[in-house]
Structures are given as structure tokens and as C-alpha cells.
Amino acid sequence: MKVLVLGGTGATGQLVVDQALAAGHWVRALVRSPEKLSGRAGSLEVVAGQATDPHDVGEAMSGVDAVISTLGATKGSVMTDATRAILAGAAVSGVRRIVVLSSFLVVRDRLSGPAGFMSKLAMDEMVRDKAAAEELLRASGLEWTIAHAVRLSNGRATGRATALPDSATLRARSTITRTDVAAWLLAALDDRATFARAVAIAG
Length: 203
Fold this sequence. Notes:
It holds the Pfam family NAD_binding_10. The protein is α/β, with parallel strands linked by helices. It has helices spanning 11-22, 54-61, 78-93, 113-122, 124-138, 178-188; strands at 2-6, 26-31, 44-48, 66-69, 97-103, 143-149, 151-153, 162-163, 175-177, 197-202. The chain has a single domain (2-104, 126-163, 176-202), classed as Rossmann fold (3-Layer(aba) Sandwich). Helix content is 35%, strand content 24%. It starts with a strand and ends with a strand.
């Protein structure tokens, strides 16, 4: 599969790139700092550009089968702007499969007390931006998947990435490794059970 990765120089994005290459996918990464992805073996094309720029994203989406976004931002409207760019790119390129990493903090009606406090106070601007971006994606008519990952940690793969029931309470102490998140995002590309679904994942 030909996959465009947005956020490919981030902590989780680099793992998505590496795992996709190891699995034999052809990968294009749209990044601001191409040198951060140098030296990797496999079918990797690194393109310099902005994930919030509709022209850059549209060009990068040309010829790919799917998009995985691991973009993250704590301030501003980066996620909303990037989603608008993805939707504009989809209209031009015809790409329909979009997998997006988001945060469990967006799902406020399912949060435990401490997690709810984090969402409402400590990270309110980030949550508003992610929520607005998700609404755009839900209304797009594309074949999207949103992964609401619990708190991310570093470490080796455990193989325990689990899709939680829609009724599950999401807790601040729950964690999942970035390595497992990357594997879940890649597996979701072909998993039609995740199409047009927001899925909470934990380790």
C-alpha cells in the first residue's frame, strides 16, 4: 500500500514510518524537517512542506492509497487546519482512507474524574482543536478512523493494543506505548470494522 504519513518526525510518527517500511509499504512523509527521517531503508519519499497547507498536502496525497496523521499540537488550530488541508487534498486526489491519531481527552463524557480535570483545565485549547478537527472528518463522507489513544508512553511493543468498548470509562492512569499505537494505526488501514468509527485504544 502507498501511505502518506503526516507528523512523521514526531515520536509516534517516526514509529509509524519505520513500521510501515518494515511491513513493505511505500511511504511518503510530508514534514517540515526532512533531515529527521534520513538514513532509513525501504521505499520512503520525504517531502518538505506544511501539513496545514492545502497545496502541500494536496500534492503529497497525489498517488497514495491512504493517509495516516499523527500530528499533535497543544496550542492554536493546527489540527483543524491540517484536517481542512486533508479534506481539500482528498477532493483533488481521490484518496478516501484517512486514519487519525487523536487523544482520549477529547471524549469528555467518558473520562474519569482526574482525566476530566486534565481535559477541561490543563489541555483545554488542545482538546478544542482536536474536537473541531474530528467534527470536520466525521462530516466529510470519507472512510475515516479516529484513534482516541490513552496516555502515550515510550517503550517496546507489547502487542496488547486493545480497542475499548464504547461504554468504557477512560482513565488518566491508563497508558499505551507509542510502538503499539503505531502498529494499531497501520493495522486499521485495512480493517473495515474501524471505518467511520472513533475507537478508544489502550495497552
